[in-house]
UniProtKB/TrEMBL annotation:
Organism of origin: Nonomuraea insulae
Family per record: Belongs to the AHA1 family.
Recorded superkingdom: Bacteria
Entries under Gene3D superfamilies matching the protein: 3.30.530.20
Domain Activator of Hsp90 ATPase homologue 1/2-like C-terminal: 18-145
Name this polypeptide is given: SRPBCC family protein
């Protein structure tokens, strides 16, 4: 049996009928993240150097506790990533997630998400590869375009 390691750089593109500000808010505000990120409540100012935290839905534990590495609201956000919700993932070094939001035509934006620096985090890479990120991004798109969570 042959197994293939998940890529150390994963790139996802999708078009969303929303403004750059709406997408930015969905990525940085808990009232949105709860609807597409497995109930996680994002806490951040979005300012470079500020914390970027994911709280469990009941706020009892941190699912992620990283830092905003770069930001150009509402077009670019770069954050560290380490999944504290799973001990195997928490033991790996932080990777990086970049959100690039580009206006397109007719009220649509292209969202590009790049999850990289996964070379030393193979368990994280496998967890987020393919369906992992696509579930999150499909939920984000659905929430912004319909006002309803994907899992409703």
């Amino acid at each position: 049996m042959t197994t293939t390691a998940a890529p150390a750089t994963q790139t996802y593109h999708l078009f969303i009928r929303a403004t750059p500000q709406q997408i930015w808010d969905a990525v940085t505000k808990p009232e949105y993240s709860a609807g597409y990120l497995f109930g996680a409540l994002v806490e951040t100012t979005g300012d470079i150097g500020s914390p970027f935290r994911y709280h469990a839905p009941d706020r009892s534990t941190l699912w992620g506790d990283e830092t905003v590495l770069d930001a150009d609201p509402p077009h670019r956000l770069v954050v560290g990533y380490r999944g504290l919700y799973n001990p195997d993932l928490a033991a790996e070094p932080a990777s990086r997630v970049s959100w690039q939001i580009e206006p397109a035509d007719n009220g649509v934006c292209l969202l590009t998400v790049v999850h990289d620096r996964l070379e030393a985090a193979p368990k994280t890479a496998a967890q987020v590869a393919g369906p992992g990120w696509m579930r999150v991004l499909s939920g984000l798109k659905t929430l912004l375009e319909t006002g309803e969570p994907l899992n409703a």
